[in-house]
């Protein structure tokens, strides 16, 4: 078994597409800016984040899908090499940080923001273990 992606169900596909591509700088697979589906990948690693139009999935699953989630039900985590520099880049491109950059533990610094649908995104910088 292999994890292919984490998929977020979104109502405003175009706004979320712009956020993951233009603000976070992830590479879109096909360029489907209006959806109903797109996968985004970082420059390194095999993990991916995908967006799926919520209305399309509702047509497939009907009442099982339910209304939009209330409260936070997901957290997308991206590891970066230089948290301060990356935060400066994404805020210059329109992101608003909710928290950080700051130490979360003695081995990790983090910053948090939201995508246009309110999904939480955590940016992590892993620190070398201190001997």
UniProtKB/TrEMBL annotation:
Keywords: Metal-binding. Coiled coil: none annotated. Pfam families: Glyoxalase. Residues 2-126 form the VOC domain. This is VOC family protein. It comes from Streptomyces plumbiresistens.
């Amino acid at each position: 078994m292999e994890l292919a992606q984490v998929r977020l169900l979104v109502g405003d596909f175009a706004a979320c597409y712009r956020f993951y591509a233009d603000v976070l700088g992830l590479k879109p697979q096909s360029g489907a800016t209006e959806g109903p589906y797109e996968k985004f990948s970082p420059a390194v690693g095999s993990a991916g984040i995908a967006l799926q139009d919520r209305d399309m999935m509702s047509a497939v699953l009907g009442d099982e899908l339910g209304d939009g989630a209330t409260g936070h039900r997901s957290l997308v985590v991206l590891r970066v090499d230089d948290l301060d520099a990356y935060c400066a880049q994404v805020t210059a491109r329109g992101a608003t940080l909710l928290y950080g950059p700051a130490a979360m533990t003695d081995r990790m610094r983090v910053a948090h923001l939201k995508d246009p649908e309110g999904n939480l995104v955590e940016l992590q910088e892993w620190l070398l273990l201190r001997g």
